[in-house]
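Consortium newsletter contribution from the modelling node. Members have asked for a concrete example of what our holo predictions look like. Here is one, prepared for the L45E5XJ5 complex that several groups have been discussing at recent meetings.
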Amino acid sequence: MGGGLVTTVAIDGPAGSGKSSVARVAAEQLGFHLLDTGAAYRSLAWLVLERGLDPYVEADVLSLLDDFDYAVDVSGETQRFSVGGVDVTGAIRTERISGAVSGVARVPAVREAVNVRFRALIADARPGIVVEGRDITTVVAPDADVRILLTADEEVRIRRRIGDVGDAAGVAERLSARDRSDNQVVDFMTPAPGVTLVDSTHLDFDETVQAVVELVRTQERA
Ligand SMILES: Nc1ncnc2c1ncn2[C@@H]1O[C@H](COP(=O)(O)OP(=O)(O)OP(=O)(O)O)[C@@H](O)[C@H]1O
Ligand SMILES: Nc1ccn([C@@H]2O[C@H](COP(=O)(O)O)[C@@H](O)[C@H]2O)c(=O)n1
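And here is the predicted structure:
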């Protein structure tokens, strides 16, 4: 890929690697939009549970896909997500949804449907967008100007996540299980050709953001 104008920054990585928090601050510094693709999968998992269905039963998930009325509002200070007009921004971050979301995400028709929406949002974003998830560098936006696999050692990611939820019980097992399940669908542990690995194991938060922003600046100068 040649250098010059950067409009799309793709970031993938395992659970707790800092994708959403690092992408958010990097997007602010770049003056770019932010697309949190995991929120779409989480919102569908929320709807499946809300309807009393099983996220690990493909037919249950497919029965809701056509009516999945998902919206993202980026007009305020933080992104807000809604399903059928119900604000699910907080609800989709619970451990209950984290335990359900892999079931929804492994359904090929779900992935195809949300990817269509993601690509449309990416195409419309001006002046640019940071997109984070699991398959952005490889499937959703393989032609992104900057492609990053953001990772950290598992024990570090678990420690950071425990800091988020304030309760260590079961966090390690759930994070590992989610990565194992998600990794059967898409490989986000090994950088694909052309993807830059950013390992934040020994970086603090600001250093990690700077590593991402510097990759964009380097690409712009190339
Ligand atoms: N380099 C870093 N140093 C210290 N803390 C960090 C670093 N990067 C991220 N964090 C913190 O780690 C926690 C997990 O980050 P975040 O929620 O952004 O990860 P994620 O990859 O989006 O996770 P998930 O895929 O599970 O949603 C957050 O509290 C974040 O502030
Ligand atoms: N591109 C993506 C993004 C997410 N997923 C699935 O959604 C789950 C939640 O993602 P978070 O980034 O919010 O943790 C994740 O565990 C995957 O199951 C995906 O498949 N592809």
